[in-house]
Amino acid sequence: MVVVIVICSLVLAAIVVMLISAPLRAGSPAASSAGGEGSAAEASATGGRRRADLESAREAKYREIRDAELDYRTGKLSEADFNSIDAQLRAEALGILNELEALGEPAGDADTPG
Amino acid sequence: MAGLGYACLLLALGVCVYGIVASLYGVRNNRPEFCNSGRRSIYALALILTVAMAVLEIAFLRNDFAFNTVADTSSRTTPTFYKAAAVWSSQEGSLLLWAWLLSLWSSLALFLTRKRMRDVAAYATAILLGFGGFFVSLMIFYANPFSTTSPAPVEGVGLDPLLRFPTMMIHPPMLYSGYTLCTIPLAFGMGALIARRLDAEWLKVIRRFAFAAWLFLGMGILLGARWSYSELGWGGYWGWDAVENASLMPWLTGTAFLHSLMIQEKRGMLKVWNVSLVLATGTLAIMGTFLVRSGVLNSIHAFGGATLGVPFVCLIALLIAGSIYLVVSRREMLRSENRLDSLLSRESIFLANNLVLVGLCFVIFWGTYFPLISEAVTGQESSVGPPWFDRYTVPLALILVLLSGIGPVISWRRASLANARRNFMVPLACAGLTLIGLLASGVAHKTFALAMFCCAAFVFGSVGQEFVRGTRARRAMAGEAPPRAMLALVRRNRRRYGGYIVHLGIAVLFVGVAASSSFQHATEVQLSPGQSATVGAYHLRYVEPTASITPKYDQAHTGSTLSLGAVLDVTKHGRHVATLRPSEGFYASGNPAEGSVSSLIGGQAVSHIAMDGGITRDVWTAIAPNIETPTLKRIVSAGNAKLPPEDGAIALIYLARAYLHDPPPAQFHLLVSPLVLWIWLGGLIVFGGGLIAVWPAPSTVRRRVAARSRARALRGLARA
């Protein structure tokens, strides 16, 4: 019984070591980057973060526009208030879209581990 | 097998320490492969603890009494169903369950975020592994679930009869899932503060887990209340017990967070408040675990006499100090981007709702922890009872319900007085009509109930109006039939209408609480067969006694060795309503020294209530039969003196016959509680609404699928 327990424990330990050491054995291009490459990767990561942030903001803004419209249709906003809020929200959304466009096409998994 | 379990714990501790070091090294030195390795440590922890959990479960199912925890909390006569649940009835087993669930939920969270927020996730990984390591260390150094005794006892003590109830199979895993899920937003919140990445994305990542924590914790609390009502024999569902309170506090702050989160998403406001709520919810979850595990409390739910207080206090102190430091040092990054446009807006209502929820939490915190602090300082035991809690929580609950009706009819940003006046007409009319109806039926003296019914009617009116108007708007746009328009409306606006359904459920739940606590009829009475008692409008007659000797499968399937009860005939105005069979189960003490008969019935006696439940009222009955009569005592004494242990059950047959032949008067606890079912229904509505609110919208799913296909196509092109 003791032998079985020892074997089971060792097998489990081996599986665990294999599982957690896999990324270290595979290595990572990002790990070896240095100097100019490192700065480029950092800049790319920062751009990726900004994009993710803007995309979240865009989704939230779209939701806010839909909510304002529903508030108006269900009688919670007067027409004047709705028009002013809707125009303001659309202007804010446009600002976010412009900023996203300025960032260019997504560069893939900028924030993705290797 | 105990050796394998213990090896798992040692391996788990090693993995936690490695994972913390790897994650921190990876994120500080920009080495993503170490961050990945750290993340995989959580997966490995889940694997190891799954093996450990399986080892312990198998030991319980195989009656392996060499395991101390199996011998202490299970027995051969414990039904298999409850043996499986007995794992978490002990201090050691529940710590293992906590760590296991933490590892599973953390694995899921880190798997879902493996391609996002690399730096935040690395810190979150280290924090979650820190929690994992803490709980594994407790098991290794203080409460080892795999400790053994040799030679193994022949029989175990058995599972506490009070825990032999179906919801106890799922109540602890639900509650622990809630607690452990609370630590995920905490870990990501701390990670975001440490990494100084307090943008919108971390909120997006934790929203779903914060919601899952809220859902599981809520379900756990409700199942606990249901257990209390159906099993503990006192007829109540909430007793302001410290352990109940401990689970309610993170739920309240979690609810506040789910509301104020929307304001940050929409307006970039309340950043300090939100991150503080996330940290407070996680810390309160750990404090809740501390209350149960530390041995500072004597509660039906707590594991008294434990010695885990000091490590828990250290962890909580570290969490509080760390949270305060992080929030204060990052306050510049947490500045609001906007200000409130108007006091008459949904944002203001959410803010008020947050204040009430946090106020409720503070009151409960004070009532729960003040006696502990006072005892620590003065050395004298003190406690705060339900009247103290009711004095403060009742008015706050009324305001909360009222706000849940006001919120839906006020628009975001700013509402005009004219619109608000028009929108309040239907809800106010509902509340007014309810008030008139109730006053006419003569319940003016029950102020709390009266106020709560009116507030609930206000909520029904406001939510109903929202559904009607929304459906009408949808019909005007799409020309659909009303049911289809309503479904489409909910599908397209899940968060909003799911939230409204939650508000409706809360109102239903509080109607149940108000009605059952204000209009309950209760009596304690001693009856002999043929005698009757009146409770409210109901007449209960003790028809005849019942007795059964079914050590393995008693009437309630809880493994009692002797069950004595009664048949009660319930009538109202002469009409038969129900036949109820309450009983009390007697359990083996597991101590042969008590004698061959006494050891079979010397354990804790537990009431098995009988109830006729309905939408308008529950008729609830419990019995405490008297087995201390001279005749019955003589049978037990004779059996102890003359029968060998294996024949002790023969005396029980005589005892049961004697009880049936000449039943002594029995003590009955009889209740008629109105609308208790509304509490459980309200809970179901809340969780149903919550699920609707969090379910991804079809368009989101489609967008994600399309994005994934686009990403795959791009990668394919890059490789070509």
Summary?
Chain A has 114 residues and is mainly alpha-helical. In chain A, 82% of the residues lie in helices and 0% in strands. With 720 residues, chain B is α+β, with helices and mostly antiparallel strands.
Query: How many structurally independent domains of chain B?
Result: 4
**How much is the radius of gyration of chain A in Å?**
25 Å
In percent terms, what proportion of residues of chain A is strand? under 5%
Oligomeric state, counting identical vs distinct chains: heterodimer
**Radius of gyration of chain B, Cα only, in angstroms?**
28 Å
Largest interface (CB within 8 Å) is between: A-B, 51 and 62 residues
- The strand count of chain A comes to 0
Q: How many separate helices of chain A?
A: 4
> What is the general shape of chain A?
elongated
Per DSSP E runs of 2 or more residues, the count of β-strands of chain B stands at: 10
Could you name the ranges of chain A where pLDDT drops below 50 across 5 or more consecutive residues?
Answer: 30-36, 107-114
Overall mean confidence score, pLDDT of chain A: 77
Sequence of secondary-structure elements of chain A: HHHH
Q: At CATH's second level, what is the architecture of the largest domain in chain B?
A: Up-down Bundle
Q: Mind describing the biggest β-sheet of chain A?
A: none
Number of discrete helical segments of chain B: 22
